[in-house]
Amino acid sequence: MQTKKAENPDLSKAVSIGNGTWWVGSGGKSFLSRNSYFREFKGSEKVVNLLIDPGPPLDFDQLNQKVTSIVGGLGKVNMIFANHQDPDVVGCLPYLAKINPNAYFLASEDTWRLVRLFGLNSKYFRAVERFKDGRAVLPSGHQIHFIATPFCHFRGAVMLYDPDTRILFSGDLLGGIASPGLFAGIDNWIGIKAFHQLYMPSNAALRLAVQKIRQLDPAPVMIAPQHGGILEGELIETFLERLENLQVGLDIITSLHDQLPLLLDAVNEILDAGRQLLGEDRVAEIMRAFEVDGTYPAFFTLTRSGRVQEIRGEPFETIETMVKILYRSLDERQKNLLTARILKILLDRNLPPFDLLLQQEAGPEFELSEAEF
Ligand SMILES: [Fe+2]
Ligand SMILES: [Fe+2]
């Protein structure tokens, strides 16, 4: 267990992120890493050990080892909170319920309706909606607040706020892919944006959630999501502002409805042009990079013959990233050839050219981190 907040903490161990609060998640090796948190509320007479978003069965051994290093064993957990019922959040609940059958489970009624299908005992379930003003007083004397974030991304999703440490546990909201470390920097936005474009249903849902975060009093100093980097300081407001203006899920699908077939057509022609310059094998290799590691959907769905059938997330940005990666394998002359071809492919279909192509004149410098998502 690490007790002092470190710059580059060892993610194979529990990491202290605030007073009586530890990250006990799944390390940073996968594209979509899982964050779980442990909070020890020490009162004058009673102690409450709360586990937040315990995680999937795959991460159980790590969770066990990390929580044990803090408090001596998972059996000491007497309260479990879950933002919603996805397997990456609650998959290991059946084990936890056996280890400590008297632990209380806190979640929304919507979440419970699905989680109870694990065969859990409703005697120990407490619906967060039943607490007056969404505030619960724990046996230790501490308060915790529950903030509903409907459709971010589940209709019954609820965040947990600890006003004592001012840490907000936000679930999938503000979660991100491909996070390089435990704490987020400005570059984490790329992964947060991609994750929200894919998993959040609409900008309206995000706006409501952001509004609720802004109303928190005292304001949070840290936001701890279930995936990706933990946000602190000014980054919180920067990312909240960006979220408010982000088109996601249905916004993208409905606004691009007429353009999607044309884009699919265009991306396949761009790939053909890439094959002419680089060969089948190299292009196949590049497209495999978009399949990441199985913890996240592939950005492109391909047929057996390598044709793109579906593009996930914001299609223009996804294709632009693909073009950037293609460019990395080309010399200057080939790049110019491909740029002209792509411009023609897009303009023939009345599609807007990518920013990337318009920047060509100035001689683009590609960000590796962005190109790799
Ligand atoms: Fe989820
Ligand atoms: Fe999740």
Domain count, please report it.
2
Low-confidence stretches: 361-373
Report the end-to-end length measured between terminal Cα atoms: 31 Å
Radius of gyration: 23 Å
Helix content: 25-40%
Biggest sheet descriptor = 7 strands, mixed
- What ions, cofactors and ligands are bound? fe (ii) ion
The name of the CATH topology of the largest domain is Metallo-beta-lactamase, Chain A
Question: Can you lay out the helices and strands and say which pair or pack?
Answer:
Elements: E1 15-18, E2 21-23, E3 37-42, E4 47-52, H1 60-71, E5 79-81, H2 87-90, H3 93-99, E6 104-107, H4 109-115, E7 125-127, E8 135-137, E9 143-148, E10 158-162, E11 167-171, H5 189-199, H6 203-214, E12 222-225, E13 231-232, H7 234-244, H8 249-255, H9 260-278, H10 280-288, E14 300-302, E15 308-311, H11 315-328, H12 332-348, H13 355-358, H14 368-371
Parallel strand pairs: 4-5, 5-6, 6-7, 11-12
Antiparallel strand pairs: 1-2, 2-3, 3-4, 8-9, 9-10, 10-11, 12-13, 14-15
Bound molecules: fe (ii) ion (FE2) (2 copies).
